[in-house]
Amino acid sequence: MGNSSSSGRGHHDESVDYGSLVPQGVYTGPRDWNQAIVSQLIVGRRLAPFYRPLEEYEDSWDDDQILAARKELPDLDSTDSVTRIEAAPSAAAHASSYRSKRPGSLKEPARPEAQVYRGAVECPICFLYYPPNINHSRCCDQAICTECFVQIKRAEPTTTHLVSEPAACPYCVQDNFGVVYAPPPWRAGLGSEGSNPFWSDTQRSSEPTAPPTHKRRQKSFGADSPEVVTTVDQIRPDWEAKLEAIRAAVARRANRRIIMRQVGDRLIPVGVTSGRVHALSPEEAAAAASAAESNGSRRGRRRQGNQNGPFEQFMGMAGQDLEELMLMEAMRLSLLDHEEHQRKEAEEKKKQQSTAPSIGESGTSSTEAVGPSETQSRPGPGPSTLETRSSLQASTSSILSSSPSSKRSISPAPKHTKVGSQDSLAPGRKSWSISRSRTPPPPTNPVPNLPVSEENQTAWRNRTTGPPAFSTLSAALTSTSTAAAFLGAASSSEQRSSRSVTPEPGSALLVTSSVPANSSIPTITVANNDTESGITTTRAPSAISTKPTSQDSESGAGIGFGSYGPLPSSPESDMDMSYEHSMGSLDSTTKMDGQVNSGAAAGSAFLDEHSR
Amino acid sequence: MASISARRLAKELREIQSEGCPVGITLLEANDFSRWLFTIEVMGESLYQGEVYDLQFRFDAQYPISSPAVQFVVTGGKQSPIHPHVYSNGHICASILGNEWSPVLSVIAVCVTLQSMLASCKVRPTDNDRYVRNAPENPKKTLFHYDDDT
Description:
Chain A: This is RING-type domain-containing protein. Chain A: Belongs to the SIP5 family. The complex is a heterodimer. Chain A has 21 helices and 12 strands. Chain A has helices spanning 4-14, 35-43, 63-69, 81-100, 103-106, 112-115, 146-149, 199-209, 231-235, 239-255, 282-303, 308-352, 358-362, 366-369, 392-402, 418-424, 454-465, 470-487, 490-496, 547-555, 571-587; strands at 15-16, 19-20, 121-122, 129-130, 135-137, 143-144, 178-180, 229-230, 257-263, 266-272, 508-512, 524-527. The longest helix of chain A is centred in the middle third of the chain and has 45 residues, at 308-352. Chain A has a domain at 10-70 and 111-196 and 216-271. Chain B is of the alpha+beta class. Chain B has a single domain (4-135), classed as Ubiquitin Conjugating Enzyme, CATH 3.10.110. Helices cover 23% and strands 15% of the residues of chain B. In chain B, a hairpin with a 5-residue loop joins β1 (25-29) and β2. The radius of gyration of chain B is 15 Å and the shape is globular. Classes of the chains: A alpha+beta, B alpha+beta. The interface between A and B is large, with 42 and 44 residues.
């Protein structure tokens, strides 16, 4: 009995009609509902209290049998669970008389703790017995205990399923599951003091002898009827916040760009920008801020002290970071692998040939038009690959031609000098010129994640603050098609490569990874190689939201995550992502059947077995 | 004390043992509350006449709030039925095992549903090979696209 005091305390501090405000441990999972709201609803007699369930119930049982059948449940909040059940009958009876100090219960021969179970009903979900004052589904009037009720929730939104559908009734599958609760005519515990005119009159008669029986009602309650407690809106007010968090994560991912570097004849993914930090235009930023503010305050009011939200958001971000890290590592390995390959190739070539500009020959006529920097052309071995930039036109062309359906239109525009190209390309002008506007300094270290040196920052700033280098952007757009071909996203490359311009050699290309369900404008950005670790190089999407928008919206998954696949050194991320990608396309409401090319998951041919 | 899953499964098991399984379904093994095995046979005239399949249930601690992982056994010489909604790795594409799972359903209810599902045409799903190649070990990890072909 040593612990009975704590159990007793639980009873008179926190009981409502001989039930508890907190779950009795039927479920052991996380309590992800808002307990404060649930408690409030229980005290307000809008939700049945958490009664300790009976394992079995017979109408013929006496009080002792009932109390003995109350299942011993782990008390997650205290340690007295072992002695609790032994202590319960006498201690609870004592506690109740001590608690109420009311004439009605002082010499109660029948123990109300047991009496409330008279006519117990079985919850169809947990198969345990509860006092007859149990919740009933608003739609189909089925019993459901509070333990089970708080378990039912919206399907958690995922990054591939960005909607949060209201929980359906487990019995009749009607949307917006909610329950109604008819409290007993008497009151005990919290909320009983002076508030119940029936107490003294009815307690003795109604409680022991006339257990409330549930009369089957004819009508169902609407979801917005005031009697109804709806799971999603009332006991989990943070569902919106969760949804927003997931959406934000997806938006980050959509904003994230793969940084590609054109090296020799290939586009090498060298990194990925963080989608989290991206340059918003002042208007966008202001709009976002005000939106967040209004959202926040609204949600804050309704959340009522929920602590889970921010923590889970934080967790989500941590996961995001890990994913980014893994992606970066995969890309780094890929780059190293490629450089090794390049080195070997260069050595081969050195041996085999000394005169012929073989690379140029493999390309198209555009090669001949290459400007003065053509002379710099040489197959770059390894780390110095950037010096091979003048071979890019040819190589790009060959990449493009490897994607059969791409309509190539190598720009015949004369090659610009650095100054000339910038002058001729005003922002917004849809001219697809060769962009040789900039000669990037050869990096001393090809590995991504270079710390952004001051020099590089300056270089980049100079570049972007000058007349907007639209040529570089257009080049990047073109390179998207190249990248698409390179990445092997067959279906998307068909749509993307309708235009082609010579990409800026040696520059890092940021290819938007567009996630299917996200409707934001895919962007492609050009960045300086040396700042490619990239946060600072990300440009606002609005800057270049011209043609590629339509292309990308058609192709949807485009160079989405599923297309990361061919990264040679990351088979695992490949599988994960393509799996996720396919799920996304299956899931998303946009029509994307044709996009599922990874084959990791079911196509649209999957059939549904309806049992009904 | 046992988890809700064990608690409810114990009750389901007791009911199975006291009332027996429906015709064509037998409990093969229920040594614990994490994995149960049933045999399932389509009674009467059907394409599956005389064929007996093993059906495996796996439960997590959140059963019945979370659905059981149900699949046909395809090891030890066992095969999955040839059916448009069943893959050769034993996975089953049925909405009640996925997004239409309800905690009100029980193990026996699932068995009966699958039994009645088997009474249909005898064609492998068209994307069987591709799915099987990439499928996760646990069918619950697959997000099926359910078509309404009622």
